[in-house]
Design brief:
Length: 309
């Protein structure tokens, strides 16, 4: 147990957003060059549009500072992060998560808990191994671009243009996301359906860290939004991430997402940012190819699992 008072509670609403985002910024920067579970942009994207309502994210406060964040992404899957100086919280975080899992086993005769870890995080891996966890499956692949280095030139296909989302129609922007994420047949998912709405987009556009000039659209000659991405800048750290990216099914396999992301990176360079990152599922071969053409793989995430009973 930690030797300092810790208040553990769920995210309650807008009053918790600023300390949660500050935690994400600090943990992402202080763990660098290791990966961290959440950049501020990840938080804004994952909480949408629930910034003003309670959420299942658990916050570990020491005074008014968030030292750890814990989230079940499924009944038996856990993500967590701590500030580097709060790594002593990890055993208690895991113990509490195991008890929560055992309270919600349903009909599972052998309940287990799987925890997402970065493969290069030797200290955290050693902690979980000591607690009985074992590496069981791949989860994600993570890429990073050093923005101190020159970027490739951008040459758009004839008639295409890149525009940002300043003043964009919210419904059209939301539809561009739905078009991309409601067809995932290229990675073997046949039942995808995005419910992203104009109201969700408006909530994101009004949230901290969103920058319309880094929310980019590649527009085809006929006006179709062929590819899109949101890049989330953190000026305090000089680190940005992409979340999400998407290409219209009719325009895939043409290298268009690469062009949009390079333009976002060019804009980040102009503002003095030092790094841009992006990740994808381990089985998403098209995304891995695109990201690998403009950034370097720096790590992977894997599931570490323990049978609890």
């Amino acid at each position: 147990m930690p030797n300092r008072p810790i208040d553990i509670r769920g995210y309650q609403g807008r009053q918790d957003l600023e300390p949660l985002l500050h935690f994400a910024s600090r943990s992402f920067a202080e763990r660098f060059p290791l990966g961290a579970q959440w950049h501020p942009g990840d938080i804004v994207w994952q909480l949408k549009p629930d910034y003003d309502r309670p959420h299942g994210v658990r916050l570990w406060f020491s005074g008014d500072r968030v030292e750890a964040v814990v989230m079940f992404t499924a009944a038996d899957q856990l993500w967590f992060e701590t500030l580097p100086e709060a790594e002593d919280l990890v055993p208690d975080i895991i113990a509490r998560a195991e008890r929560a899992r055992l309270r919600n086993t349903g009909d599972d005769p052998a309940p287990k808990l799987s925890i997402r870890l970065f493969a290069k995080d030797a200290r955290r891996i050693a902690t979980l191994e000591a607690l009985g966890y074992r590496d069981t499956a791949p989860e994600g692949i993570w890429f990073r671009r050093d923005l101190s280095q020159p970027l490739p030139d951008i040459t758009l296909p004839e008639g295409f243009r890149i525009r940002d989302c300043t003043g964009i129609d919210s419904e059209r922007r939301a539809a561009a996301h739905r078009d991309a994420w409601s067809d995932l047949s290229q990675i073997g998912i046949t039942n995808a359906r995005s419910t992203f709405s104009a109201e969700m987009y408006q909530s994101i556009a009004a949230a901290p860290y969103y920058d319309a000039t880094l929310d980019l659209i590649l527009e085809a000659p006929d006006g179709t939004y062929a590819a899109n991405c949101i890049c989330w800048p953190d000026p305090a750290t000089g680190i940005a991430i992409f979340e999400p990216t998407g290409t219209h099914p009719a325009y895939r396999s043409r290298g268009l997402m690469r062009l949009v992301m390079l333009e976002a990176m060019r804009r980040l360079q102009e503002r003095g940012f030092k790094s841009a990152g992006v990740g994808t599922a381990h089985f998403n071969t098209p995304a891995r190819s695109t990201y690998g053409s403009i950034a370097t793989q720096f790590d992977e995430t894997r599931w570490w699992t323990k049978v609890l009973a």
